[in-house]
From TrEMBL, chains A, B:
GO terms for molecular function: L-allo-threonine aldolase activity; transaminase activity. Transmembrane segments: none annotated. Residues 30-293 form the Aromatic amino acid beta-eliminating lyase/threonine aldolase domain. It comes from Listeria rustica. One of its GO terms (cellular component) is cytosol. The keyword ATP-binding does not apply. Its cofactor is pyridoxal 5'-phosphate. It holds the Pfam family Beta_elim_lyase. This is Aminotransferase class I/II-fold pyridoxal phosphate-dependent enzyme. Signal peptide: none annotated. Belongs to the threonine aldolase family. GO terms for biological process: glycine biosynthetic process; L-threonine catabolic process.
Length: 358, 358
């Protein structure tokens, strides 16, 4: 990333941002704890009202029997896959080539779990029912990420998901949902979290992406599954004496933002439309299906960085703090809409796209 | 544990406590963040001033090159042992039969790491230089816990530690310190943390036991070691986007209490002396070598629980919320001295031991 510090600095100095909910700083924690009584008892190694109530609340919301709070999705999903692998006595599982487990976890599934992941389909597109049907070997579990983040947050149709779910059930394959951004896809599907989760045997959801909490994840499923998950949480060193800093803030931002996903989705579609109206700029997907999409420029990062930095300085609106080089001399960045976009004055936003159009 | 809810309830209702620093509740977090500016930027996946500065501070304090903040000691120590096992190409490591890794981690070393732990010595006593000399097979690493918590917080002499350290260096064995309660043993050894850590290749310390933070651990060692540790932290799902709730509080309570370990140690010796003066009561060790010890009663939990519950109600001083059955119809509990003991009015404390003496 050429000149990335210059771009990063210009982004940091902007008053407004296209992405996210605002700065990730201590005020996120302070706001969540402001109304919390100091007498609120800590959870203790997974027990206590603060963790149990939240687990019950999210389990009910997702329509699952039980749920376990984890410090991270990385830990939660490795646990889930191992549980299903053990159940079937088969260490082979399958997922998209750009799954978080494949590209962001330092090969943990192999190094820690001796699992054998098979890759479904190809990196640049969604995995399909056909990819699953054509699997060369039996797998214990398939993981599907909704939306598939690394390709701009794309989604299969709900009908295809239903088909995949039925196929897995008929063929003794467990289906796990990487729902890192599950909340964010309900407006597009016009389905509740419950309706989506009903297609999966186990579900991971996150509290710091669309919801804007500090960190933390929930793994939900049947009673036997979560009992096993608690053992794996202990093994991974995730069964902390106190997880309440994450739980209390997850709960606070869940209540604050769970009803705003439609608003973020509409704003994402509007922004993508504006980007696509600029010469040499396009978004993936062209029409977003969640609050996120990727923005691609036909030119290199070196060419685009000064343009973005200038827009940052002149409009006070931050588009991105980085640009990633792409094949063919192109570049791009990821955009996830949250509370921040609504704070941008209309005139400033118009100015951004006028300048980008030039 | 017979009647344990009655004892637990009577303990909870007491105004004062022999153990710890006070209740584990949200005020612990609120106190730590009170003076923190809301603009303080979060760490992001292990980077940023808030995590890097604290890692540097603790590395320097322990006299190690570098340090990594982990959410838990469980995760940190499994990472450490794996790194040394990989270095030596030998999955055999050795530790005390009551090591945390052996009894509190759901067999994680075997299930996650395929490691082969050898047990040094026997459960009821400290491991010794002789146990190490008599190891039946070569090991890559030996883990020593100072103090050995499960036997009341006992310590080898510093001279024996030096001998073990020299032996390991001469025999190509890495020596890892489980320093969950390292801060607490410096007054007895009359050595600094640096002097103790100099005997070990890698060191884990905790921030919620003697120091009373919320959770969190540091793993310290050479540069190559901590670079590897960061990879394992990612694999374990411990590389959270934000660990600052634990880091800020760890730093706050480190500064607040690191100078008070001598005070806790003296109070522990005084309390143990008072327990030992009561008929049918003894402590292990008889004279504490840190802020902790175990209290044993000659009679069963069933016999002792009503006595303790009565003392709780009559004196307002909590001794313990539980009693663990011990062999031979005895029972006992663990006591770790912190800030709480200094708040007990002298007359109330005297009353506790008068009643216990009866």
């Amino acid at each position: 990333m050429a000149n990335s510090n210059k771009l990063k600095d210009s982004f940091k100095k902007t008053t407004y941002k296209l992405s996210q909910h605002g700065p990730r700083n201590a005020s996120v924690l302070k706001e969540a704890f402001e109304a919390v009584d100091g007498d609120l008892e800590s959870d203790i190694y997974g027990d206590g009202a603060v963790i149990e109530n939240f687990q019950d609340k999210i389990a009910a919301f997702l329509g699952k029997e039980t749920a376990v709070f984890f410090p991270s999705g990385t830990m939660a999903q490795q646990a889930a896959l191992r549980i299903w692998a053990d159940e079937k006595g088969n260490k082979k599982i399958a997922y998209h080539p750009l799954s978080h487990l494949e590209i962001h976890e330092q090969n943990a599934l192999k190094e820690l779990q001796s699992m054998e992941p098979l890759l479904l389909g190809t990196a640049e597109r969604l995995l399909t029912m056909d990819d699953i049907r054509n699997l060369s070997e039996p797998v214990s579990c398939i993981l599907i990420e909704l939306p598939q983040r690394e390709i701009g947050g794309q989604l299969p149709s709900f009908a295809e998901l239903e088909e995949i779910s039925a196929y897995c059930r008929n063929n003794g394959i467990r289906l796990h949902l990487d729902g890192a951004r599950l909340w964010e896809v309900t407006p597009y599907y016009q389905k509740s979290e419950k309706e989506i989760c009903a297609l999966f045997d186990s579900v991971y959801v996150s509290f710091y992406k669309g919801l804007g909490g500090i960190a933390g994840a929930i793994l939900a499923g049947g009673e036997d599954f979560t009992a096993e998950a608690k053992i794996w949480k202990r093994r991974y060193g995730g069964d902390l004496i106190s997880l309440y800093p994450y739980i209390v803030s997850a709960d606070y931002y869940f209540d604050k933002r769970i009803g705003k996903m439609g608003e973020y989705y509409e704003a994402a579609k509007d922004l993508a439309h504006r980007f696509n109206a600029c010469d040499g700029v396009r978004t993936v997907p062209e029409v977003p299906v969640s609050n996120m999409f990727h923005v691609y420029f036909e030119k290199s990062a070196e060419a685009i960085e000064p343009i973005l930095a200038k827009i940052h300085a002149e409009t006070g609106v931050g588009c991105s703090g980085y640009l990633q080089e792409k094949p063919g001399g192109a570049c791009g960045f990821e955009l996830s809409v949250g509370d921040a976009v609504a704070e941008i004055p209309v005139a400033s936003l118009d100015q951004v796209f006028e300048k980008l159009g030039e």
